[in-house]
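Q: Could you predict the 3D structure of Fatty acyl-CoA reductase?
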Amino acid sequence: MNDQMMRDVTPALLEKRPNTYTFTKSLAESLLFKHGHDLPIAVFRPSIVGASLREPMPGWIDNFNGPSGLLVAAGKGVLRSMIGDVNAVSDIVPVDIAVNMLVAVGWYAGTKRSQSIPIFHCATGTINPVTWGDLCKIVSPYLWEYPFERVFRRPNFAFEAKELAFTYWTYISHRIPAWIADIMAKFVGKQPIMQRNYVKLEKAMSTLQYFTKRGWTFKPDNYNMLLSELQGRDLQEFSFDVRRIEWDSYFRDFVIGVKKYLLKEDPSDLTAAKRRFKRSVLLD
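A: Sure. Here are the predicted structure tokens for Fatty acyl-CoA reductase:
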């Protein structure tokens, strides 16, 4: 099957699913439920995985997927508008919390036999919720306090619930500034790249919009049961208690982690960064 055929059949295969990632996860689960009842297995479902809470260090992140890519684009002043429901729960879970719970799920599946394959949701929404609107309010001042290098415009990101408003701000805040920037680049003999970058950005953000427009409720029954099974040192070493997440400090560390681990910028050298940041703000 060639690439064109794959593109043609993909929408029919996905049906209402947003991408091939969720489709393949669903496909794998269906195979387990059909053929895996005699095996010591369990299904582990993390929600949107973000930077670490504590391990290997606060704010550690190594990819631009999901919320980390959103923070980079917003912090660079490139992303200013996105479709989303400010009242919907974002359901971000730190990566080390997810890893700890995955280890515990493996232990449980290997030592406790169930009549059916258990499903474990690793999520924060029903226990320690933070909405997309909360995320914007918390993150925005930290994008100014710990500015990224070489910003395009000042960070000023917001979710828009209505398609019409989103389309309007896409042109006002994204496409027109990109067009102006490319004209200026040509004028000084540089390669125009901003319009091309915005095409890539909008494609990347469209994969996240499916989740920012919606909220889900994941039952925490098995989560609570598994947490109660941990005792003593195991509870200390592999705790995945999301009630311990303090969102303000978590997102501060997330912003610093994006700056340090993804963008490879020195978060301790803020004086020069803030000076350059202020110059870019004056030009905005």
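Q: Anything worth pointing out?
A: The longest strand covers residues 43-46.
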